[in-house]
Amino acid sequence: MKEVIDFLNEAQTFYIATIDGDQPRVRPFGVVNEFDGKLYIITGNKKKVFSQLMANPKVEISATVGGRWIRLECEMVRDDRREAKTSMLEAAPNLRSMYSEDDGVMEVFYMKNATATFYSFTEAPHTVTF
């Protein structure tokens, strides 16, 4: 999992694809955090992505760094524990201008049944699961 976190942090922006009915939706994200042995993202429950994740938690994430890229398939699981939210805000303190643990808007999700495949033009793909 560390290799995935390091790659996504190096990329700085990664894209999460969800399903909205029968239409795929893709949007940029920029923060991941490891907490309690799991990889987390943050969003707000007023955003469409939140409703999409609640309706269908299967996502695909993609990012590039130089001539390398990652495709990460997983299920997102909502975690409403205050500790998980605090950990995310400690990892990305700039998000405190948008969210707080008790605002009723901030949501964190962790990845489950994750398979990340790393690709490049010069090396064979390799896969990490967590």
Characterise this structure.
With about 130 residues, the protein is an alpha+beta fold. Helix content is about 20%, strand content about 50%. The chain is built from 3 helices and 8 strands; from the N terminus they run αββββαββαββ. The protein starts with a helix and ends with a strand. The mean pLDDT is about 95.
Which features would summarize this protein structure in a list?
130 residues, alpha+beta, Pnp Oxidase, Chain A, 8-stranded antiparallel beta sheet, 3 helices
Topology:
Elements: H1 2-11, E1 14-20, E2 23-29, E3 33-35, E4 38-44, H2 48-55, E5 58-65, E6 68-79, H3 82-91, E7 106-120, E8 126-129
Antiparallel strand pairs: 1-2, 1-5, 3-4, 4-7, 5-6, 6-7, 7-8
Q: How is the main sheet built? A: 8 strands, antiparallel
Order of H and E elements: HEEEEHEEHEE
State the end-to-end CA separation.
Answer: 6 Å
Tell me the strand percentage band.
Answer: over 45%
How is the CATH topology named? Pnp Oxidase, Chain A
CATH superfamily: Electron Transport, Fmn-binding Protein, Chain A
State the shape.
Answer: globular
CATH architecture term: Roll
CATH class: Mainly Beta
Mean pLDDT: 97
Write down how many β-strands occur, each being a DSSP E stretch of 2 or more residues. 8
Q: Which residues sit in consecutive blocks of at least 5 with pLDDT less than 50?
A: none
Describe, in short, the structure shown.
This protein has 3 helices and 8 strands. With 130 residues, the chain is of the alpha+beta class. Strand 5 (58-65) and strand 6 (68-79) form a beta hairpin.
